[in-house]
Design brief:
mainly alpha
Length: about 70
């Protein structure tokens, strides 16, 4: 049973290493869908990419501090 728990933790860690990062991405997607539907597709893509890039930069900076 202990080996199963360890395996599940490793599997979880494989997909969600940083829970805050994963939640930020999910939150940005929800926010972008709600707010960006009124923009043209090119502008949507640019804003969506900029948000993902900002989330990535913040995550890397936090990881470098710890």
């Amino acid at each position: 049973m202990n080996a199963l728990a360890i395996g599940l933790k490793k599997l979880y860690g494989l997909f969600v290493d940083d829970l805050g990062y994963a939640l930020a991405i999910a939150g940005w997607i929800v926010l972008a869908v709600a707010l960006l539907r009124f923009l043209d597709p090119v502008a949507r893509g640019i804003v969506l990419f900029a948000g993902f890039a900002a989330i990535l930069v913040v995550s890397v900076q936090r990881g470098a501090r710890s």
